[in-house]
Amino acid sequence: MLKTPPGSPTDVEAPESALVLAPRRPRGRPRKTEQERDDGNRRLALIRVAARLFRQQGYAGTSTRDIAQAAGMHSGSPFYHFKSKSALLCAVIEEGVRNAVVRQTEGLQALPVDDANPAARLRVLVRQHLDVLLGDDSDFVPVMLYEWQRLDPSQRAPIQHLKSAYEALWMPALLALQASGQLRASVGLARLMILGALNWSVQWYDPAGAATLDDLTDAALALFLKEPERSGSVKLEPNWA
Amino acid sequence: MLKTPPGSPTDVEAPESALVLAPRRPRGRPRKTEQERDDGNRRLALIRVAARLFRQQGYAGTSTRDIAQAAGMHSGSPFYHFKSKSALLCAVIEEGVRNAVVRQTEGLQALPVDDANPAARLRVLVRQHLDVLLGDDSDFVPVMLYEWQRLDPSQRAPIQHLKSAYEALWMPALLALQASGQLRASVGLARLMILGALNWSVQWYDPAGAATLDDLTDAALALFLKEPERSGSVKLEPNWA
DNA sequence: CCTACCGATCGGTAGG
DNA sequence: CCTACCGATCGGTAGG
Known about the structure:
Oligomer: homodimer
Low-confidence stretches of chain A: 1-37, 232-241
Shape of chain A: elongated
Order of helices and strands of chain A: HHHHHHHHHHHH
Radius of gyration of chain A: 24 Å
């Protein structure tokens, strides 16, 4: 990597006294830099705002004008950042699944190397999944769950890999639990039903209600596992709060 | 109840020979009757066709013109039967939930009076629920699951009663299973998670695939219940096929 | 990113 | 239920 050598033009600072009369920074190419950063910010702002509106009103029920206004832009501007409305939906979904994969991977790696307790692995998977669905900044994955069908096949393909990667993260724990008799039914159907039970929570969960996400996690494990978890099991890092 | 007495006018059949020259039935008031029956037929046709399109394309993604065309009408005609697009959505949802309540009630009543086997009750509930979601003529309830939020509060109220009635049908079996140690977790959360696991199947179930609805039922009970069902349990009438 | 605009389509209605 | 139509709104674009 090349570092800008000391003394190069872009490194030169105007003397303090000059700022009074000429408050602007050297004119080298600040525009370009600011433009790039703003582009990223505005693009990300559009994705965030679109995720929220798509979740609240549905994809077809949200106009690109709604999104532009919520992002503080005018009606045509989203199309400077995204070539179409569905490309914006793609970006929302991809951002959501990518983030979910990252969080699950990190959460599982934070477990002790002692892999002998698959129930602890399932607990991590369930808890993080609920946080991705119901926690702060949690509009992306719900949009995927309910608007996935609106994408045409060519748009689904790149995201399908991420979805498969996410689902694959569940398999080792489920296989181990099945082998130890803690889980019955085929792992394939068990995975679909467990994820379904959790995904359905976006329809009824009330963050202001009595149940916390930890409560839901307890209930899910109690429902799916044949025996109570070993109490000597691992304590989890609270890094998902 | 009053039965039409024999020999009353509506009971009179024109002799066979008369049908050749005067094939039409007595002209008393056939128009009115036909009109009423046709109204019902066209209205029901609209509900059926709307259910299918709402499920495939979503509520906002389906135009009233799409629906009219699929029902063989012109663009303005649906508004002769329904005062608005959302009133049509209401009718679809109400029809779906009402039918589901009827089927579950009948299915449970067909069980032997020997109520001592709550697992058998749960099996009936799960199996019928899957058939309502995935069987023939199964677009209505999925539409409710995914478009419920599009109704405004005044539209939800009448349907909410039916939804509550449907959910209440599950409680006796779940409470009995919990009491016998066959089900852990609170019954409230267990009901939500079990229904969620089943409802999610509309996203992935392929009728042409290997798994049958009976397979899904087996998997669900194996996943949720702590011990295998007693093999001496009831045989179910196959009246839902 | 804004301005100004396009053709298409939307839910719904009057009048028969 | 059809015909003819309304105002509103839609996704998207050219040109700057």
